[in-house]
What we know:
CATH class of the largest domain in chain A: Alpha Beta
Oligomer: homodimer
Helix content of chain A: 25-40%
Radius of gyration of chain A: 23 Å
Number of domains of chain A: 3
Amino acid sequence: xxxxxxxxxxxxxxxxxxxxxxxxxxxxxxxxxxxxxxxxxxxxxxxxxxxxxxxxxxxxxxxxxxxxxxxxxxxxxxxxxxxxxxxxxxxxxxxxxxxxxxxxxxxxxxxxxxxxxxxxxxxxxxxxxxxxxxxxxxxxxxxxxxxxxxxxxxxxxxxxxxxxxxxxxxxxxxxxxxxxxxxxxxxxxxxxxxxxxxxxxxxxxxxxxxxxxxxxxxxxxxxxxxxxxxxxxxxxxxxxxxxxxxxxxxxxxxxxxxxxxxxxxxxxxxxxxxxxxxxxxxxxxxxxxxxxxxxxxxxxxxxxxxxxxxxxxxxxxxxxxxxxxxxxxxxxxxxxxxxxxxxxxxxxxxxxxxxxxxxxxxxxxxxxxxxxxxxxxxxxxxxxxxxxxxxxxxxxxxxxxxxxxxxxxxxxxxxxxxxxxxxxxxxxxxxxxxxxxxxxxxxxxxxxxxxxxx
Amino acid sequence: xxxxxxxxxxxxxxxxxxxxxxxxxxxxxxxxxxxxxxxxxxxxxxxxxxxxxxxxxxxxxxxxxxxxxxxxxxxxxxxxxxxxxxxxxxxxxxxxxxxxxxxxxxxxxxxxxxxxxxxxxxxxxxxxxxxxxxxxxxxxxxxxxxxxxxxxxxxxxxxxxxxxxxxxxxxxxxxxxxxxxxxxxxxxxxxxxxxxxxxxxxxxxxxxxxxxxxxxxxxxxxxxxxxxxxxxxxxxxxxxxxxxxxxxxxxxxxxxxxxxxxxxxxxxxxxxxxxxxxxxxxxxxxxxxxxxxxxxxxxxxxxxxxxxxxxxxxxxxxxxxxxxxxxxxxxxxxxxxxxxxxxxxxxxxxxxxxxxxxxxxxxxxxxxxxxxxxxxxxxxxxxxxxxxxxxxxxxxxxxxxxxxxxxxxxxxxxxxxxxxxxxxxxxxxxxxxxxxxxxxxxxxxxxxxxxxxx
Lengths: 454, 454
């Protein structure tokens, strides 16, 4: 029976960094993975979606100067996406090997200070278990996911772009898919149960994004559910709650996620879960069972790779020194790669009102900036929610490159820089990052590039 | 005779912000411009080159998934570039009008507290003059610039992409042109007098960029001059100092800049110039003549729009409160938009050695990051030059999106964040900005994503 200091269940972004860091510090560590090394992000999320996105952005760029849409070779496209996934996955596998992490393939079930590998009937003894099994796509009953015509993020990036695609759910994943596939020339329909897309974000963000995506040809059904799908002669008919029927080549379901907390032994051991099945954690990443910690998506929203990565580092700190402190969820930037990108840190106006916090809202258009005008940001803006003494409660950025630019707002959000400092910082021309300096001038009441009536 | 508080000579990035800011503060201000509103950056520099670059980047992206190169409509391309320039220019004109800045078109010559408009024979009386006339392209004798076959940045962005192009000079402009035109399918040759391209930058930067551009098909002649050009049947033959002859459709000269300090009356007034003709300035932006200030490229390197903009704000502070302090030139980030982009703040190793400063060099490859692998950054790296107590002397970044990402290094460069803080900052996945956190972990000796032999 193999004996470890720590066994990590799940080899995604919440898991493998725990293993590598602990091995660096001299621990004996194993990782158990039942699917692919790299987890959801590497195989079915960030990596393939951003490989696809890069192509989508390129098509959008080219659309300014070609008379016909660029014609993509679907075989090359899939090969390209796969190549980036394989590269990322192989990188992780290499690191695990070089650092001496034992990697077990198979389904692991946690018992009393052991992890049982079901298929191989072997048992790993361990002092600590770190749960990092992530989430599965949530699939509503009756929607008929078959992995071929009606798919989830598990299949969508590996299939040829269909002629038409219905996206169920206008959350981050749904909106990203809608943008990328519409750029590839696919007829895209989006069905969203709520009255607006990206309902968890600032309301202005939803409005701008919907306008932008409509212009790209995406059609929206809001306040609407897909009640069932019917496969018909190679097509899929989606029946909507309105009674309407939409016939498309493929349907992709992206209505939410479900934590993988069942079937891995944790309920039996008394690991406390919340009402949605996510693991409840102490500030030091411990579950209610004193030798079980958890990391990544399984610990609840925001379900983001960079949050999972911070979790992983926190788990390591906790095991090594007992001193880790979980960051506040709202301090994790949220990014949506949707052409006109969305990036958000901190609270939305809705959240501040709910909490009864007083704030000032400063919203500035950004389309006048040349970097934005070149990269397509007509509907872009930055909105900052400011408290007393210019503390920053929230930054909401809708802009090309927002996913990169939001990092330049972090120092202002965490308070190591104030906006009066920004005036003296030479954010390079011609970049979207100039929005930081522009916003600072706007906030201070003397923008060069906007006319303000006195 | 019109009477102003301040007359600004030149309506580029060094000039128009001075006018707008001063008018906002109640001053009577005129701007005199002899060419186009917006100056070099808007008309012949940043804006058209980045409009072109956006297309070039898009072609590079698409090259992963198409079997043939995308075919650009040259008419649409020129229209696109022009449209971005016109938009930027019109924006500035609108602001000047709305804020009530008087704009005079024509050649202005400074006299004793006056600016004479040569063509209109009118005279503007003024308390202060701000020189912001910028630079012209430096054209070596005998190279035969004719504005048609042998051109400079003044013409190149408005001509149809030629079949082949010889770029004279591998500085920032030359390298940007080489990248963009090579992506457009143009056969590009680059001739550089020095032994390496981008000779003023970190040596490793030159090596990576040359490798990257060679891979894109760019051919280099280093340690070489163009001694003359000869027009022949619609082609141009460039004679190199090696004796070799290169026959191309067009030649573009980008060997340097020459300040526009002659013919504007400043020598007559005793404004002190340096050996290269740039205006010498006090720390408060004053020339040697007590009522003449200066801003932008005319004040010397770095010749960058964001430096000119800071100058303009500084000039305003100086006039209004007398308290402006020029930033150190090395604190201005330098960016090169070359596909694999370059961004640099602070000193190079060469400069530190020359100054006898002790430093540690930490250089990290970045190709393993998925954002970099997707966007094409095989030869990318980050190199940080660190002094005592982890003070940062220089950051040299070669990466896709480096122009945006460098802004995330600024807080570390100016010392409001230390790299030990970066471990706790959730730079979003999947972005190139993650390089900041990755670098911090590498510096601290425990990277997750790189194998370090013990």
